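Lines hold sequence, tokenised fold; shown next:
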Amino acid sequence: MNSDAQARLSPTSWLMFAPVRHHSPRCAHHLRELVAAFAPQRILIEGPDELNRLMPLLQHKQAKAPLAAYLHTVAGDDALRCRAYVPLTPFSPEWVALREAARLRIGASFIDLPFATRVAHADNSAYFARAPEPTLADEPRADVIAALLAPSGCQDFDAWWERHFESGLDAPDARAYFASLLVFGELLREGAAMDADNAAREAHMAARISEALALGERCLVVCGAYHVAGISALLDAPAPPVTATAHEVGVHLIGYPMERFERSQRYGAGMPAPGYYQRVWHAWQAGDLTPYQQPFAALAIELAQALRENGIPVSLPDAMEAVSMAHRLAALRGCYPGLAELRESLRSTMLKDDSDAASFAATLASLLAQGPDGVLPPGMPVAPLLADAIAACLRHRMPSRFGESKKKDLDIYRNERHRAASQCLHQLRFLGVPYGERLAGPDFVNATDLGRVREIWSLRWITETATSLTENSRYGASLADAAVNKLLEQLAQPSGSPADLVLHVLAMGLDKVADQVLDGVERWLGNSYDALALAQGTARLALAFEARLALGGVGMARLLPLLERAFSQACIRLPWLGMTDAARSQAMLAALDDLHGMIRRQAQWTDPALFYDACASLHASEVAARVRGGAAAILTVSGTWSASQTSAALAATFALAHTAPQAIADYMQGFLRIARSWMLASPQHLDQLSAVLAAWSEDDFLTALPSMRLAFSQLSRRETDELARVLAGPSQAPDLAGERVPDMDTLRHSHVCREQVAAIMQRWGVGP
């Protein structure tokens, strides 16, 4: 079969196929051998047609992988913002093909279907618009892979590939290796229906190959092993190549850190442990006879050092034993040592305590993923969004070149220039660009530090800053346009509340999109029936309304009527709050507190009577005890309940002392969040609570202890001192210099109690 497969690799003397797996060091090594043996006049590479625009950059002498081609366009009736990555490592066969073509001064071109054509299909548009990091690579068939794994003993496809096509394969030459890969590719196709996308791609590649052959060029085709059979079948009668659709496609070369190639990250077509394979590739280039084992010793020593820095005791002999064990394990399995054997031996020799398992796994994964950064060629065209961001940074005297850093202090309320710089930083942050870290200052989106009047930022321009800005080019050519388009994209998503986006509009100064966002809020109010979401959305709108003038926002005239509607709807739905997940009771309590806070500061959009009626209904319903406690506190401090009604509610809760101690603790947690001062001014209720706690058994006490601690941890230091004074009551002990002095019996009793409590707390791991 191998001789037949070798014949299919070269159907004519002018054509040779190199079936590969993306990012395989062995594929890349044998491809270089094949180029030397076959001596092609042109190398044709699987990759979208648009990548030919980047050919001078990809083949530039100073360009170094890892890099990625980034493509983006707007497609479909819904104007989806589609994008895709074509990542290249130093050991990617496609990268080696490009560099060999440049070194030998022969032609090279990409021959796959244009990206613009692929995204025109509705299913493709949805994938390229919504996948975390969409790529143009193929995935193996799950059914075939499962059949291969079953008898192999391998944990997954990557381990199987490693054993059969990387470290575990001893192919005599490049043709024999690629013949084996061709058979594997044909196995993947066997019995499978060809989808329209792959059929169109193979037809297009066959047409491009036929064009090159017609020019009399000796061609080497580098493509996925899956496609070779399909392309070969179409060479005799190729269809004309497909021209790109009318979609305008942006194509950029970006930095792409080695860690992003890790399969466990977002890149589905990646290899496991790209840092390990980078070391393997260096060994191949150095002519090492055992390239897959050459990195073992260095990795073991580096891992031992990293683990020691993390407090895990590992010695140099442990590292030496790991290397030796990897070879013994491979001999036992009857295969060459590879990544699987290295992983297992490192774990066996260096992980001595299961409590360190998580730290060990994270340290090993990080080490195996690390690799050198790529280098972009000089004089490379800059994406319009990147150029606009650089100009904005220069305008606001902020870092704009790699390595620059600065601390920025902004008076956003009184200084318009500072506010404009803040809006620029918020736009970058909204786009997910790694550049500015806010150290202090009001955060309206997350409702923190609102009492501050200045923002303090730590700014630093790093490689990923330029990469991320280029990636965000799909949203627009300027920071403001990109932020607007991403915001509108989020607004169109069916899940979530658009109230948060109102705050983003203000923080980023996007006045022109305010009406569209408020339209979204209005639609959301008309369709939302979730009491918690309504209450939380009302709080976000309230914050936006109160911050609008300070942030210089305009276009918010419609906020007040929307707020009135949101508050009313939240109150109407409040009695149904108990129908939400009980695990979210803390969020429910916070939402209640926010609504009550609006009434206490006499906000003009509130309806106190409607809210207090809703709280009374909520307290009478079967909801989480924490929420019922909060409702009781609101009714108490507002004067809606009389003192006798509050006493009755507390007495009914305290009556559960021996049947539901946890419920008492949760109820008090909600009550004390809102009515701490009222409780401290009511000694009779504190005495009642104290009596309940004293009557608890040890088991009841330990059951309720975590929630009770949370309840009283809400008190300030002054309030805690006041609580202790109230509970202690008037002292009968003699007074010394104005201080109470306990008698000896009290001291002895206190000492015994302290020892008992310390023993209980130590048993449960909550002691000092």
User: Anything to note?
Assistant: Residues 661-680 form the longest helix (20 residues). Residues 731-738 have pLDDT under 50 and may be disordered. The radius of gyration is 34 Å. Residues 76 and 122 are 7 Å apart (CA to CA).
